Each structure stands twice: as C-alpha cells, then as structure tokens.
Amino acid sequence: EVPFPVAGQLTIVVVSGRNLRAADRAMMGFGAPVSSDPYVVLKCISGDEKPQTHTTKVVNKNLNPNWNETFMFNVKGQRLPKLSFETFDKDMMKSDFP
Predict the structure, then answer these.
(1) What is the pLDDT of residues 70-79, one digit of tens each?
(2) Which of 35, 7, 31 has the alpha carbon at shortest distance from 22?
(3) If DSSP states are collapsed to H, E and C, what string results for 26-77?
(4) CB-based contacts of 38: which residues, under 8 Å, 6+ apart?
(5) Contacts of 25 by beta carbon, 8 Å cutoff, 6+ apart
C-alpha cells in the first residue's frame, strides 16, 4: 500500500513489439508458421473498480510491429494499480490465442 490515496489518470504508450512468435502459416495453413497479425490487450485494475481494458490496432503480417498508441486509465484507491499487457495473434479462421 502507498501512504497516500492514488487518484488521477495513468497514461500508457504501447510503442512496438520485437521478434514476436510467428503463428500464421503460409499456403492455406500448411508448412511452418511464417507471420503473425499481432495486437496488445492492456488491462488496469485500480482499487475496487471494474478492470479497464484497451486494445491496440492489429498490425497485419508483422513480427516486429509498431503501434505508437496512447491509452488512458483512470486510477484511484489506496494501492498502486495493477497492469497487464498481453500480445495476441488475430486469426480470421479460428479464435485468437496468446
């Protein structure tokens, strides 16, 4: 716990990803994975509030994506907020996976 209440806005900038795992296969799903369509899901839990979630845009066919996206979270409470960042592959044929 922090010795003072936390209140305000937290700004997060998702800049880029590097050397991400290839998850999409070429040639109608055959062969080794060659690319991904990555995006990031950010989650912030602050106090007893419902988690806030933001999602970056999808960068198609890229293992080194640049997002340069800014997100704002409202924070308050007696504890510093908990943040999580997960990278997923957007796949049109099946559900997304980390």
Answers:
(1) 999 998 887 8
(2) 35
(3) CCCCCCCEEECCEEEEEEEECCCCCCEEEECCCCCCCCCCEEEEEEEEEEEE
(4) 17, 20, 58, 59, 62, 63, 65, 87, 88, 89, 90
(5) 31, 32, 33, 34
Sequence-separated (6 or more) residues with CB below 8 Å from residue 5 = 76, 77, 78
42 near 54, Cβ under 8 Å?
Answer: yes
Q: What is the pLDDT of residues 26-64, one digit of tens each?
A: 656 566 677 899 999 999 998 778 999 999 999 999 999
Query: Is the model's pLDDT at 3 over the cut of 70?
Result: no
CB under 8 A, 24+ apart: contacts of 51-55: 54/12
Residues in the chain: 98
Spell out a b/e string for 2-28, using b for 16 or more CB atoms within 10 Å of the CB, else e: eeeebeeebeeebeebeebeebbeeee
